[in-house]
From TrEMBL:
This is Phosphotransferase. It is a single-pass membrane protein. Pathway: Carbohydrate degradation; glycolysis; D-glyceraldehyde 3-phosphate and glycerone phosphate from D-glucose: step 1/4; Carbohydrate metabolism; hexose metabolism. It comes from Trapa natans (Water chestnut). SUPFAM superfamilies: Actin-like ATPase domain. It is found in: Mitochondrion outer membrane. Pfam families: Hexokinase_1 (PF00349), Hexokinase_2 (PF03727). Keywords: ATP-binding, Glycolysis, Kinase, Membrane, Mitochondrion, Mitochondrion outer membrane, Nucleotide-binding, Transferase. GO terms for molecular function: ATP binding; D-glucose binding; fructokinase activity; glucokinase activity. GO terms for biological process: glucose metabolic process; glycolytic process; intracellular glucose homeostasis. PROSITE patterns: HEXOKINASE_1, HEXOKINASE_2. It catalyses: a D-hexose + ATP = a D-hexose 6-phosphate + ADP + H(+); D-fructose + ATP = D-fructose 6-phosphate + ADP + H(+). Residues 249-489 form the Hexokinase C-terminal domain. Belongs to the hexokinase family.
Amino acid sequence: MGKKAAAVTVCVVVAAAAAAGASVVARRQMKKSAKWSRAMGIVREFQDKCDSPIGKLRNLADAMTVEMHAGLASEGGSKLKMIISYVDNLPTGEEEGCFYALDLGGTNFRVLRVHLGGKDKDIIPTEFVEVPIPPCLMTRSSHELFDFIAEELAKFVATEDEKSHPFPGRQRELGFTFSFPVRQTSISSGTLIKWTKGFSIEDAVGEDVVGELNKAMERVGLDMRVAALVNDTIGTLAGGRYYNPNVVAAIILGTGTNAAYVERANAIPKWQGPLPRSGDMVINMEWGNFRSSHLPLTEYDDDLDVASLNPGEQIFEKMISGMYLGEILRRVMLKMAEEAEFFGDTVPEKLKNPFILRTPHMSTMHHDTSSDLKDVASKLRDILEINNTTLRMRKVIVELCDTIATRGARLSAAGIYGILKKLGREITREGEDQKSVIALDGGLFEHYKKFKQCMESTLKELIGEEASDTIDIIHSNDGSGIGAALLAASHSQYL
């Protein structure tokens, strides 16, 4: 073969190799593009299912109102329990004196001392102590648990100064926040239905928890009575009402969610007792259990529910509360990893762990304003061990955070609107200038700013511009503590 022919052959081979290389690159690009398209398809389908246009939210609010009526009519008449709280007097701001609160809701309990100054109520000075419960007392006997609590309560009371007990001869009074399922029978009594959160004390089930605490306080020589047995939502309502007489409802948006509101006693068909002098009764809705065909449920919500400890229950809570938002995000990301190789050829192992991605992590990523979304990158790296994400990928994660938070916030607003409709306060009536105020508490509301802002703007959208000035949302902090003490004051035996 001559030199010229050899050169031509070399050129042909080089050209073929280059063409083959280009073909490989092109195939890789096509494969990469196809994966991205599949991932974006998963995202768009999820966004479509989460969509909550204003018409759907109005239907949802109407469904909430219908369920409220049904729950007030009879026990078991609705998914909403609409529990009669026996709280018929809310704080007026005139309360004076020193009152105590006991907040028992987990492996620790808090004891608070709250000083109320009547009309001079700008500040409520409080003192408190937090006490861990020895694990062995969580499974032994009712007698041992309540004796331990009473002893710690007595130690705290012993730190009183002269100003802390300004009415000689009066018995001290306590608001008791007991965050376990209870069948309430009066303002200061309720039988334990079951334990949760790691407690398992069989001899306490079916017993009056207030009676057990009262007997324990007697055994340690503590002159104190439980004036009010409450939950944190009702405490939040009390705290809001203390400062603002126009508070009509309270919402908890935290790890879990619930709502309570002030109902007219004569509008509660299942109420059997005499009508209270105030004419009002606070209703604990237990709205986390709300369910409706108008809820924008997705496959991820269904799967989360099936895998939960209480399948078929607390559907509303599983869509809007802090316990679950991060988990919904993880489930969407996992599908993208499994079906579209969004994070590479292998599915990140950490991404398979339920609840590893918490709502505070999601909030941090959602609020990332840096040009390269460095907070998103660090959360993916530190929590899920996902490295080398591109800016385009990180933008998709932020988009998912926004979709999940927006849906939760808009559903929360629809629930509040449903309560306002039940009370007939969703519109402005001629000659009426009284505001309707909603007290809110919980870490989700307090710390997830985009969630809070979206919820508030959606509520205004539902109410309409002309009536939006008549609805206010305020932050009522520590309903499980200060709110319980306030309810002890408003139900004092010395009123």
